[in-house]
Each structure stands twice: as structure tokens, then as C-alpha cells.
Amino acid sequence: MFEIHxxxxxxxxxxxxRRSVGASGFVLAAGRSLGSGTCAQCxxxxxxxxxxxxxxxxxxxxxxxxxxxxxxxxxxWFQDRLRxxxxxxxxxxxxPLRIEVRRASKRIVLCNCLDDVYGHVLFKLFGVQPYLAxxxxxxxxxxxxxxxxxxVPQGVSEVWEVDLPLPELxxxxxxxxxxxxxxxxxxxxxxxxxxxxxxxxxxxTLELARPSGQSRLPRGRPLIAFCxxxxxxxxxxxxxxxxxxxxxxxxxxxxxxxxxLVLTGCGGSEPPIDGFEDYRSPRPDAKGEQVWIxxxxxxxxxxxxxxxxxxLPTGLAQASIDLLPKGRYANIFQDTLPNPLLTEPREGLxxxxxxxxxxxxxxxxxxxxxxxAVSLIDGRERxxxxxxxxRCFAEPSEFTSGVPRAIAALxxxxxxxxxxxxxxxxxxxxxxxx
Length: 434
Ligand SMILES: [Zn+2]
What we know:
Helix content: 25-40%
CATH class of the largest domain: Alpha Beta
CATH architecture of the largest domain: 3-Layer(aba) Sandwich
CATH superfamily of the largest domain: Glycogen Phosphorylase B
Bound molecules: zinc ion
């Protein structure tokens, strides 16, 4: 973590004369954590990213007089965002900040999770966990957009909630910045959490997104969730996506007559899609998101177009299929969280599938997607049983009792997946969830 109050030790090279400029203050604005300082050589007043969040990867520097932004060659979007925010800075009359204090503390680590991209907010939020209980006399505060507040981990002592839609969080609101500075300097000592903006390999998704056990879930199995979004579609446009989904539903329902197919995610301006139970919402609230979490956690399979909408589903469902459009190939796995149940690398690989498509995923046919889905649903239990057995055979301490148990456990997988077992009611029940 990085101390910002009462002392702040950080410097950034002046983009004009390269002289190191020490931070004399800080500004929390436009979803960023910035240091401010004046170059002793050329006298320019500068603002520069402190090393937290995306400031670790792409530290940018703004010349306050000219509005020019300087930074690394990679991550220019992060510079553009600063430039636009500075040009559009304003003194909004409303300060949409609510601070809830659960346990008062004079020393806090503040995790700044503000961002206009939902997935980025989650990445930063995953960075909160290490600070909980890290020190007995220091508490954790989370600066969070209202609509993600329900994912703030238990154990946080203060929730600083900004009630603005995500796209407005990267606007520069002077008054909000002043309120935040006031709240920080009221503390005896304050740090910023690193909130490194990438999914952690060992993150436990369930720490954030806990199934409530309260939702009335559809009863049919397998449960397959399509994580819907309107701005990035499977096929060019909403109509084609709806057609693809209808076809997919028909194929999967034919293969699994008792399946439940559900739509989760933002949307719903389009009419219902045949074959799916509709849980979409144009403006999801905390309650609606909790129902989605419950559905994903119960799902045998989550499917969706690549993007931050897939983060929680990949971490919660038994398996997932990510439809990756050509323009996003380099972003592979940015929307993927490891399912905490899959602790072995091969098990993780089995459960996380990617289908590479063209720019609009127009070449990803419903038949192909259905085939991959069926292979995952039918094959998962056998694959995991084989993996578990392999670990026994490789471990001398298991030779006496583990190996015979593993051999016995494999017996039930001698039938072909999908074939009817004596007394089974339907195909899926042959290899039901173990
Ligand atoms: Zn200078």
C-alpha cells in the first residue's frame, strides 16, 4: 500500500525537462489517484498518476497549463481519458458521496475502485482482500460506485459510495475531489491500496460474489446461462444474436429435454427469446445482480461474448464458453476468473473454453457452440474423475487405499456419455452432478 497522508513520497519526471518532480499533494478525480507537483526547473504545474490501479501500468502526466498529457507508448486510452476529463472538469453542485462508517478508525487503507468500466471496478475490488486483517490498527475503506456496492467484501470498515452511473465516474468533479481529500486528511494516517487492475490467479470469486441461497432457481438441469449484452453481440446486431440464441436453445433443448436455459445480463429492450427464461434487466439493481450471481453459481455452463460481463460467470459456473471476437484476441482471459473449485491446471483448462470468431462472431455457428457445450456438460464429470484418479496413481501414499477407491469410482464412466443407464429418467441424470 502507498501512503498519501500525512506524508506522500512519490515523484514523476517532468515531461519537458525530465527533472524529477516530487508530489506535494494528491487529487482523487476522474476515477484516478493523482499526485500534484511543480517542476523546480521549468515551473510547470503537473498532475501525475500515483502507482495504484492503472497508474501502475500506464502512469500518465498532465501539464495543467496546456492540458497536454504524456505517458508510456502502451495504454494511450488511459492518457486520453485523463485529457478528456481535464478538459471537461467541472464543479458539479451535487456531491454524490455517501460515507458509511461501520467501524471508526484513524488509520485507513483506501481502495479506490472508481472506474467507468465494470470489469475494471471488479479488478480493483479484488485488490481489497489482502488489506483486510493485515494490521490490527488499520482499517480498510472502499471507494466504490453505488451499483457495485453489493460486492464490497465483508470486513471493510468504511464504504465510500459514489452514486453516479459508471460512465460518469471518469468525469472530473472538483467538488467530489475536495470532499474526498477532506475525508482522507481527517484521518491520522491514510494509504491507498495498490488495487492492481488484473484478475488475480488465486482470487476466490466467492469472497465477493456469494450465492444468497434465497433465489428461487429454475429446476431443470442442466442449467445453462447465456450472459447477454447488447453492445457486443454474437453475430452482427441484436437481431442476428436473437436468431443465434433461438437456434442454440432449440439444439440444447433437443439434447437435454429437461434443461433450463436462462438469459442474464444487461438488456431486455429486445423481445423475449424463445427457449430462454429471461432474467435480463436494462438497469440491474443489487437485488437483480444477486439473482444473476445465484444463477451463475448454480449453472452447469455459462456462455457469453467476451467482456467484463463474463468475469463473475466464469468464476462461479461449473464451466464456461467465451465467444472471442477477432478484435479482442489480445484481450483473452481478461474476462476470466478461475473457478475456485478447479484447483488443478488441467481442470481449469477443461472448464474454460474459448471459441475464436471473426470481428462480429458471425462465423460462430449455433451448431458449433452447441457441440462444445454438450462436450463440456457430458464430459465434465468423467474428465474430473479421471484427473482425480491420476493424482492418486501418482502419489505413493495413495497406493493402498486411494488407488482402489479411484478404480472403483471410474467404473460408472464406462458407458458413453449420454447413453441411458438402467433406471435413469433422462440422459443428463446418467452422469448427474457429483
Ligand atoms: Zn520541467
